[in-house]
Design brief:
The protein starts with a strand and ends with a strand. By secondary structure, it is an all-beta fold. The chain is built from 1 helix and 50 strands. The chain folds into 3 domains: 2-322; 325-401, Immunoglobulins (Immunoglobulin-like), CATH 2.60.40; 410-492, Sandwich (Immunoglobulin-like).
């Protein structure tokens, strides 16, 4: 360990403290000043136990920085603290217009005192993790690094919309931790939130205040099922919402200011599912719809934006799905034997399942737009289930004018599976009572079971060839004509 007793001017030359083993730069009460152009390279840790370290030059530290007294940027805009280890601030750090570059692997922003950075530049590898609240007054450059605030806050006070820079970097948080930004305009402020816990996700939020008053908004991505945090997805306003995103949600905060803001949530429909609403945990509490959204594509994501939202009392916001809507169309009138083309109007997420009831007379009872040719007036019910398991249903009546009973005038019960049974051929009968008489007026068969018919026998005996008489009472499904009757002759042949 080397103890610095007197080091007042480091101007345009390089001062290197280096040894074969790791060395500690230990300031025990001196004034250490690095002027513009000066370089201090420490092959180890920097511990400012007492005294001042003022840096307007370049201070490269291969190990940790621990400040127990006072460190500054020397009232200049040229100071750079490049740190490969952890940052521990336990007293006064006056950044002035300096830059702190954390350029190692996993690194901590820690200490017993809050650090207010001017420029904070994150680089290297690993995750930069806070164990204390921190502020940036000018520029936060994430580059390709995760800044994990954990249960703490990172607040960027510079109201410039470009105060946060990134390539692929993002800010993650836990619990009540969040990324905060000060705003004073009606411009769009991006919150690059994400998480590497569980499934990696980068899902930003954009907030746009409706006024230029001073506000502070905060955002955190909760990269887990809302149910895990007691925000039950089954507790929702079923009149307006059908489903809540089970994969993640966001906490949104308004720390100061009173005005509303537009909220834009970004997601990847191919990975996250299709959503068309933003739900807010509120009132009872339960998930409720925020307001009519705008949907678009931006920042490489699908986006949903709601406007002038003013309730931040409860923090959870999530992607949601509204109940789909379905209109089967106007009732149609066709002549018996004609085909009705049904073309419903659907609005909702991707359809997963379609069911038409009854299937009678339809060329497809699992298609959204089947063709119908019922034998009589029929009321069809269609139900659609989308990819979020949300349902919608509607009905349509196909009125058949001139509906006819379809009965053969002969049959041949010879066991060849062709016309072996005498019965109505209609598939849309609602009721039926069929009676067969022989030529002497004796009843040889009767049934009221739809689909049943006479097989040409009476008391187990085959009946002779010839002419028989039928009498039938019947009604059609969905028909308002009620029960009808018919009678006539039929011929039994073999």
């Amino acid at each position: 360990m080397q103890t610095i007793k007197s080091l007042k001017y480091l101007l345009t030359f390089c001062f290197i403290i280096q040894a074969n083993a790791q060395t500690m730069f230990f300031n025990n009460g001196q004034q250490v000043s690095i002027n513009e152009g000066g370089i201090l390279y420490i092959n180890g840790d920097l511990h400012n136990q007492a005294g001042n370290i003022d840096n307007a030059g370049f201070n490269f530290i291969d190990g940790d920085v621990t400040n127990d007294e006072t460190m500054t940027g020397f009232a200049a805009n040229t100071g750079l603290y490049e740190v490969k280890g952890d940052w521990f601030n336990n007293n006064i750090f006056t950044a002035d217009q300096s830059t702190v570059l954390l350029n190692g692997g996993n690194q901590l922003i820690s200490g017993t005192a809050v650090t207010t950075f001017y420029n904070l530049n994150l680089n290297g590898s690993g995750i930069k993790t806070q164990t204390v609240n921190a502020f940036v007054t000018n520029e936060l450059d994430l580059n390709d690094v995760e800044l994990a605030t954990n249960l703490y806050d990172m607040t960027v006070t510079n109201t410039n919309t470009d105060a946060i820079l990134r390539n692929t970097g993002f800010v993650s948080s836990l619990g009540d931790g969040a990324l905060y930004r000060h705003t004073n305009s009606t411009d769009r402020y991006i919150y690059p939130t994400g998480s590497s816990l569980g499934i990696f996700r980068y899902r930003p939020i954009v907030l746009t205040a409706v006024s230029s008053d001073d506000h502070t908004f905060g955002v955190r991505l909760a990269n887990n099922d809302p149910n895990d945090d007691s925000y039950n997805r089954d507790e929702l306003d079923t009149e307006e919402l059908c489903a809540i995103n089970p994969n993640f949600y966001h906490n949104l905060y308004r720390r100061n200011g009173t005005n509303a803001a537009d909220i834009a949530m970004f997601f990847d429909a191919s990975d996250d599912g299709a959503w068309n609403r933003i739900g807010h945990w509120q009132n009872q509490p339960r998930w409720e719809n925020t307001s009519a959204p705008s949907e678009y594509f931006d920042l490489g994501f699908d986006a949903i934006e709601v406007f002038a939202w003013d309730d931040y009392t409860l923090r959870p916001f999530a992607l949601a799905a509204s109940n789909p809507t379905l209109n089967a169309g106007v009732d149609q009138f066709i002549q018996s034997g004609e085909v009705a083309m049904i073309d419903p109007t659907y609005d909702g997420a991707t359809i997963d399942q379609v069911t038409w009831i009854p299937a009678t007379g339809l060329d497809c009872n699992t298609c959204i737009d089947p063709n119908a040719s019922p034998g009589g007036t029929t009321t069809y019910i269609v139900e659609v289930i989308d990819e979020n398991a949300c349902k919608a249903s509607d009905t349509i009546i196909i009125n058949v004018e001139g509906a006819q009973l379809l009965l053969p005038n002969a049959f041949s019960p010879n066991q060849d599976d062709v016309n072996d049974i005498f019965k109505p051929l209609n598939t849309n009968l609602a009721t039926m009572n069929l009676i067969i008489y022989n030529r002497w007026g004796e009843e040889v068969f009767s049934t009221s079971t739809i689909g049943s018919g006479w097989d040409g026998t009476f008391k187990g005996e085959e009946q002779e060839l010839g002419v028989y008489i039928y009498y039938i009472e019947y009604s059609f499904e969905g028909d308002n004509m009620g029960t009808q009757t018919d009678n006539g002759n039929l011929t039994l042949i073999r």
